Amino acid sequence: QVQLVESGGGMVQTGGSLRLSCAASGRTFSIYATAWFRQAPGKEREFVGRITRTAGITNYADSLKGRFTISRDNAKNTVYLQMNSLQPEDTAVYYCAAIPSDTNSYNYWGQGTQVTVSS
Fold this sequence. Notes:
Layout: E1 2-7, E2 10-13, E3 18-26, E4 31-39, E5 46-52, E6 58-60, E7 68-73, E8 78-83, E9 92-100, E10 108-109, E11 113-118
Parallel strand pairs: 2-11
Antiparallel strand pairs: 1-3, 3-8, 4-5, 4-9, 5-6, 7-8, 9-10, 9-11
């Protein structure tokens, strides 16, 4: 089992920045990749991006490239989401999720952290 805990959410003004953290515990060696998703009120969950645990390969939703950056610190079992130039439409609950190396699905999810961007 893997447990994920997000932190770092809050309220920020338009144009501001936030860095979210996703701390993993448990069988962290079994993680292949960790992703960030977000869900705004009344909308479907949206893929933000992900990073592989070993090689650190990243990929992002096209609409977010250039503003959002995902990084990792394997020594701390933590994945980060740096968000810059935030806009009101970035307001959502942000979740991290992990894919175990023996599956192709996001088996583990955090509880989410709220990000609110005020205009």
